[in-house]
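Please fill in the sequence for the structure shown.

STRUCTURE ENCODING:
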C-alpha cells in the first residue's frame, strides 16, 4: 500500500487500484470529481455515481467493464441500468406517463352553479360550487339539481323514500284509529285531551335536536379532518418533494429519477383511494404507466391494501436519498426529502386511522334510535291532531299538519343520510373527494417547478448571474459515456491529469 505522499503523483488508474480506506476514498473521490469537472467541457453531465461505484467496488454491474488496475487504462462510465418486467438489465422503454397529461382533468363540466368532474366509470363529483349563485337561486329552485339531497342518484339508493312512506302510513293509521276509537262520533273528539302526547313530543324533540346536531357536527368534522389533516399531508409532501428534487437534481441525468418519483407519487395516491374503496385490481395502474408489471405483482402480494401506498413512499425515500448522495447534495436537503416522505406516510396512517376508527357503535345506534322514536311520536301526534281538526271542521288544518310532519321527518332522515355520505369521503357519490381533480392540480404545481429550472439563472462561483445557455444535451448516454471515457483515458495514460492532494 503506497503512502499518501506517494499516491499524490500516481495516475488515476493506479489510484483507483489502491486499497484505500472508505473515508479516504470518498474524500479523494470528491477531489478527483471536482478536478475532472473543472477540466472537461461536459462536466455538467458527469455521472459521479459511476465513479463512486468503481472506486469503492460497490454496485458495479458484472456485465459492465470495470476500471482495471494500471496507469494506462481508460475510465469508462457505467450505463444507467433499469430492471424491466422480466428482471433483466436494459434501458427503460419509452414511458407512457407524462406529467403534462395528468394536468388535464378529464370530463370537467363547469356550470354557473357548480363544476362537476366525471371520473372514468365513476359517478360525477362536485369539485366546487358558487356560493353567491346558490344564495341567489335559493334552496327551493335548486333542490332537484345535481348534488342535493333530492338528487336522483342519492334518493333512489337510500332509504329516505321508504322512511317517508312509513311515516305517512303511521299518520294515516293514527288518524283512522283515533276516529275508530270513538265509534265515528266526531263530537267526542272535540273534548279529546292531547296534552300528554304533546308533552311527550316536546321532551323527545328537545333531546333529539341536540343529540342529532352534535352527531352531524362530529361527522362533518371527521370529513374535514380527513381532507385537511390526512390527505393534505400527502399532497403537500408530494409537491414539496418534487420542488426539492427539481432544484437539487435538476440535471439531465436525473431525468429518470424525477419521472419515477412522479409515477410512484401518483400511484401511491391511486392506491390510497383504492384501499379506501376496497379495490384490489392494479391493472389500470399498469396500463397508465404508473407501475410496471413486476411492481404490480409485488404490491398485489401484500395482504393489507394500506401497505401498498406506504411501500411506494419507502421506494421514493430510498431512491431520492441515493440520488442525492451521488449528487453530493447537502445533508440538510436530504433531511428535507426524508421528512417529506415520512410526512406522506403519516398522512396515509392518519387516513387509515380515521376510516378504521369509527364513532362508537352504541352512540351512533342511540342517535338513530332517538331520531326514529321522535319521528314515530311526531307521526302519532299528527294523526291525532288531524282527527281532532276534522272533528272541529277545521279541514284547512289537516293538510298543513300532515305536511309539517313530513317535512320534519324528512329533515331528520336527510341529516342521517348526509352523515352516512360524509363518513365515506372516498366513496362513489357526489360528495366524495375527486381524485382526478386533485391529481391535476398537483401535476400543474410540479410541472411549474420543473419548467422553471429551464429558465433559471446560473450562479457562478464569484456570485455573478448568467443566463441559461441554449446547449443541446439530449445525446444518448452511450455516446456521452464513450466520449467521456476516451477523454479521461487519454489524460490518465499520459499522466497529465491533475490529481489534487
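FILLED IN BY: designer on duty
SEQUENCE:
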Amino acid at each position: 500500500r503506497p503512502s499518501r505522499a506517494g499516491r499524490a503523483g500516481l495516475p488515476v488508474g493506479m489510484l483507483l487500484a489502491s486499497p484505500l480506506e472508505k473515508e479516504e476514498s470518498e474524500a479523494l473521490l470528491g477531489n478527483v470529481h471536482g478536478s475532472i469537472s473543472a477540466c472537461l467541457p461536459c462536466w455538467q453531465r458527469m455521472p459521479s455515481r459511476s465513479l463512486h461505484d468503481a472506486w469503492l467496488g460497490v454496485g458495479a454491474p458484472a456485465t459492465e467493464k470495470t476500471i482495471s488496475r494500471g496507469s494506462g487504462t481508460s475510465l469508462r462510465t457505467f450505463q444507467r441500468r433499469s430492471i424491466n418486467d422480466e428482471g433483466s438489465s436494459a434501458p427503460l422503454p419509452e414511458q407512457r406517463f407524462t406529467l403534462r397529461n395528468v394536468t388535464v382533468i378529464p370530463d370537467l363540466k363547469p356550470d354557473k352553479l357548480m363544476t362537476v368532474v366525471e371520473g372514468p366509470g365513476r359517478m360525477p363529483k362536485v369539485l366546487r360550487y358558487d356560493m353567491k349563485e346558490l344564495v341567489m337561486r335559493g334552496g327551493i329552485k335548486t333542490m332537484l339539481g345535481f348534488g342535493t339531497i333530492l338528487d336522483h342518484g342519492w334518493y333512489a339508493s337510500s332509504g329516505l323514500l321508504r322512511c317517508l312512506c312509513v311515516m305517512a302510513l303511521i299518520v294515516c293509521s293514527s288518524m283512522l284509529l283515533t276516529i275508530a276509537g270513538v265509534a265515528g262520533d266526531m263530537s267526542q273528539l272535540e273534548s279529546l285531551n292531547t296534552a300528554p302526547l304533546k308533552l311527550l313530543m316536546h321532551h323527545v324533540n328537545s333531546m333529539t335536536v341536540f343529540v342529532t346536531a352534535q352527531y352531524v357536527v362530529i361527522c362533518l368534522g371527521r370529513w374535514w379532518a380527513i381532507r385537511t389533516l390526512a390527505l393534505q399531508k400527502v399532497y403537500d409532501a408530494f409537491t414539496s418533494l418534487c420542488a426539492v428534487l427539481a432544484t437539487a437534481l435538476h440535471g439531465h441525468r436525473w431525468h429518470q429519477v424525477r419521472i419515477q418519483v412522479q409515477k410512484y407519487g401518483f400511484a401511491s395516491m391511486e392506491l390510497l383511494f383504492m384501499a379506501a374503496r376496497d379495490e384490489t385490481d392494479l391493472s389500470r395502474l399498469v396500463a397508465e404507466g404508473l407501475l410496471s408489471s413486476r411492481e404490480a405483482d409485488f404490491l398485489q402480494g401484500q395482504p393489507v391494501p394500506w401497505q401498498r401506498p406506504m411501500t411506494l413512499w419507502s421506494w421514493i425515500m430510498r431512491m431520492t436519498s441515493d440520488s442525492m448522495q451521488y449528487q453530493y447534495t447537502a445533508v440538510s436537503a436530504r433531511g428535507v426529502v426524508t421528512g417529506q416522505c415520512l410526512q406522506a406516510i403519516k398522512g396515509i396512517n392518519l387516513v387509515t386511522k380515521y376510516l378504521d376508527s369509527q364513532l362508537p357503535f352504541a352512540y351512533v345506534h342511540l342517535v338513530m334510535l332517538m331520531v326514529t322514536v321522535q319521528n314515530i311520536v311526531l307521526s302519532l301526534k299528527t294523526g291525532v291532531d288531524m282527527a281532532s281538526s276534522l272533528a272541529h271542521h277545521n279541514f284547512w288544518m289537516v293538510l298543513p299538519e300532515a305536511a309539517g310532519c313530513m317535512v320534519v321527518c324528512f329533515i331528520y332522515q336527510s341529516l342521517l343520510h348526509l352523515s352516512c355520505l360524509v363518513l365515506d369521503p372516498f366513496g362513489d357519490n357526489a360528495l366524495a373527494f375527486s381524485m382526478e381533480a386533485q391529481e391535476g392540480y398537483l401535476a400543474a404545481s410540479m410541472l411549474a417547478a420543473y419548467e422553471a429550472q429551464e429558465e433559471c439563472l446560473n450562479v457562478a462561483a464569484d456570485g455573478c448571474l448568467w443566463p441559461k445557455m441554449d446547449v443541446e444535451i439530449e445525446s444518448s448516454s452511450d455516446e456521452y459515456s464513450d466520449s467521456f471515457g476516451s477523454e479521461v483515458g487519454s489524460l490518465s495514460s499520459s499522466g497529465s491529469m491533475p490529481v489534487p492532494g
